[in-house]
Amino acid sequence: METIDLSKIDVSTALIDERSTDTNNIRFGKSNMSDMVELLKNQKLTTKNYAIQSTQLHATIDDDKLKISYNDENGVTTSAVTNNWAARQAIAASMGDATYHQKMLKAGLYGLAEDNINEWWSNKNSTQLLRVTNGKIRAVLGSTYLIVDNYDILIEIARQINAINTQRIADDEKPLVLDRASVSEGHAYFELFDTNREYDIGKGDLYTPMITIRNSDVGGGALGSDVGFFRWACQNMQTKDTIMKKVHRGERLDPTIYGEEIVAKMSRLWAEAIGKGIEHTMKNSQLFDTWAAEMRESKEIQITDQKTTLINVQSEFKMNDNEINEINQLLATDKTILPEDRGTGFALIGAMTQAAKKMNTDREHEIAKFAGRLTDDNNRILVQIVA
Predict the structure, then answer these.
(1) What pLDDT does 255 receive?
(2) Are 98 and 87 in contact (CB under 8 A)?
(3) Do 214 and 221 form a contact (C-beta atoms < 8 A)?
């Protein structure tokens, strides 16, 4: 497995790519990691941030597409369409959820749908942050939102990996690698593997410690780091714990705070928080030793009533019928489960993490967390769920 050295990738130019505003479940591996670098670089370099008084914003709906009019940096009135993410933010902020909005659109009441948003902005009378990329609005945020671009997070990860691996080479140890990544409209996920350690959960079933660094530069959640395992047999992940979380929130800001220089300083400050946890976490052998032991113990937990077990899973984690049906099918067909492990809690965990890969990017990571929770505290939740 090779280390991806992002410092050797040219970051001086950017190609304008429509995917930079309409990203949706794009997954990257070692063979196309440079494409992800380019994509996130495009987003950063072609995004403009406008802090605008809400009374100066105006929403219109054209062919079911939400457009927002605002004054740009030159004072010129501009109208830009929102992507799906930004539209949901504007609608949710003004109406609570999208149900009422969709009912109005279905009834052809476009004017009423517009009025609901515009009246809310007028009454709110405070600063809104618009993030506009390639002429399309990709985020509608409040004035306390602190921007940390996904690209800056990626570059900090590369810097930390290079520093850690320089020492590992000197100690004749295997490297820490950025092996996988994925991008959705709302989030970016960067998955690092510690190739210096592997855990055999049984008959060559190898698990590698991993850390997932996640960020949303469009209001989708906190900057954070999750740790867990990557299973080579089926190329899936299991998230066990969150080790770092920083909320994108600060003091209420004025329009000048969103200038390029200020945003760069904010991004740098937040990105540095990542490096403090990476090496410390990957050196914590006791943490991963405990988790590996819990995985082995999950093989001793027998499922005698699969239907009831899946009903319990659905109730515990609020999963939908399609997701449960996928897990049910995988319990019978997953070829990565040894015959002696079928019908166990371990098989259920494997089926959940396998099913996660078939979901969209954000849901994949959510279900990976559900699977990780099952074995917490010596399989406490797994014991409660299994029937």
Answers:
(1) 55
(2) no
(3) yes
For residue 9, pLDDT over 50 is answered with no
The answer to whether the pTM exceeds 0.85 is yes
Q: How many other CB atoms are there within 10 angstroms of residue 132's CB atom? A: 22
119 and 191 belong to one structural domain = no
Angstrom distance (rounded) from CA 7 to CA 115? 49
**What is the number of domains present in the chain?**
3
Asked, for residue 258, whether it belongs to a domain, the answer is no
167 within a domain of the structure (yes/no): yes
The CA–CA distances, whole Å, from 340 to 199, 292, 357 equal: 19, 19, 24
Residue with tokens 């906190």: 222
Tell me if 25 sits within 8 A of 182, measured CB to CB: yes
pLDDT tens digits along 232-290: 998 989 999 888 888 887 655 555 556 666 666 666 667 677 777 787 777 778 889 99
CB atoms within 10 A of CB 302: 9
Q: What backbone torsions phi and psi does residue 122 show, to the nearest 5 degrees? A: -65, -45
pLDDT in tens, 300-332: 999 999 999 999 999 999 999 999 999 999 999
Amino acid at 284: N
Range of the domain at 24: 6-44+148-247+268-286
